[in-house]
Write a structure and sequence with these properties.
With 89 residues, the protein is an alpha+beta fold. The chain is 33% helix and 40% strand. Strands 4-1-3-2-5 form a five-stranded mixed beta sheet, covered by helices on one side. The longest helix is centred in the middle third of the chain and has 17 residues.
């Protein structure tokens, strides 16, 4: 079964490498979607994939965010989009 999760993080993302680290994690777990910094204090990750891999990726993102001093704010399942790859926006 496939899932689509949207994760929102708050923190200081200036020069943090958050998007690149998230991109690498998505590659590791075979996740498709996007990562973007909406403003200086908020990042959004849209992630789609198989249920087991999405669950691993969501946990991995939360742990990685803590290492970059970001705090996960929202993690919710949303409607499937059908991304073809993972992109840094």
């Amino acid at each position: 079964m496939t899932k689509h999760y949207q994760l929102t993080f708050e923190g200081n993302f200036k020069n943090s490498g958050f998007r690149l680290v998230t991109f690498r994690g998505a590659s590791l777990f075979g996740i498709k979607g996007t990562v973007m910094i909406q403003n200086q204090g908020q990042a959004v990750v849209d992630a789609e994939g198989e249920e087991q891999e999405i669950d691993k990726f969501v946990d991995w993102c939360k742990k990685s965010a803590l290492q970059s001093e970001a705090c996960p704010v929202v993690s919710k399942e949303v409607e499937w989009v059908g991304y073809e790859n993972f992109t840094i926006l």
